[in-house]
Amino acid sequence: MECLTYVEKCRTEYIWTIDKFSTYLEFYNNLETPVSITSGKFLTEMNNEMIEWNFELQFNEIKSEYKDWISIYLFRLSPGEKKFNALFHLGILNSKKDELNFGNATRGEFTDDSLGYGKDKFLEKDMLIKNTKELLPNDCLTIICNLVTFDEPVTISRFVKIKKPIYNQFIDYKRLFDDPAFSDVTFVVGDKELKAHKAILLARSPKFASMVAGRILDNAEKNHVHITDINVNVMEALLKFIYTNEVDNIDGMVDDLLALADKYKIKDLKEICEETLYLSINDENSAKLLTIADRYHCDDLKEKTINYINKNGLDVLATDEFEVMEKNYPHLITEMYQTLFIQRSWN
């Protein structure tokens, strides 16, 4: 008998920017009754059910014990019978786009009629007034929330007759990669030869499979394939990943490796390259990353990069790379504006 307890969870990041925030500090301070600002609605998904949320930022009345603070609360808006637990961490983005966390994570049990959960003492008003340049860049307060929702735990039991041994085929594949004694195809890149096995290539890459099916690798030159448009280090990294599912030290070649992963339809490697590129994003290279994402059909990288550019618009617009993109890829400018319009309509 085997028993398993598990929970369904969903992780979401939500960013709320409030423009001209000093106006709220000035007019909503020292009021007899509390005043609140409500964020736009946003969605999370649990077990194929869409859950609607929003935040409420509250300037407390002068008689309240929280009169010197700005409070924040998370509310579940969508009706439903199911109960969800949520854990969320709140912070703000400063002038350098760094996330500043205020306090510990908050946990709440949400039903459709539950009260909001949050922090009574989220931001001290005097702290914002004294640090306006750092905490309210361009007179904007940007709140960031990392929200994790949990379903109720589920426990299942089952009979287990045979315990299967753990097997990792890449351990065996790596032995083949390190010892090319039984290789049956050779890639010639410059003056270097890289040995490989057709069966492994077939199993790992649909593109290689079609090449073999077309007898491209089965020519009269003893199964030698000449590669002229790729650096040998990039080709070697590609083959190593095919055999071992591992890739190392790709920062200097990630653009070329992404192109090769896209060409040979190696999805896992392509996702690693996308993540590596996004970790390097900044104002200077974001426009170039967007053109790369578009060229190699990297939907996730494209979406994240468009969001970055829209968030840092003026700084990115001033770069040479953005000018190149605007001239040669006008459809990307259109997509950026469409995304920005949709995001603002939600808020």
From TrEMBL:
GO CC term, one of those recorded: nucleus
Q: What is its main location?
A: nucleus
Q: What Pfam families does its record include? A: BACK_BPM_SPOP (PF24570), BTB (PF00651), MATH_2 (PF22486)
What does the UniProt entry say about where the protein is found?
Nucleus
Describe the location of the BTB domain by residue ranges.
Answer: 183-251
Query: What sequence ranges are listed for the domain MATH?
Result: 11-147
Q: Which family does it belong to?
A: Belongs to the Tdpoz family.
Against PANTHER family, the record matches this protein to: SPECKLE-TYPE POZ PROTEIN
What is this protein's name?
BTB/POZ domain-containing protein
Its ancestry begins with: Eukaryota, Metazoa, Ecdysozoa, Arthropoda, Hexapoda
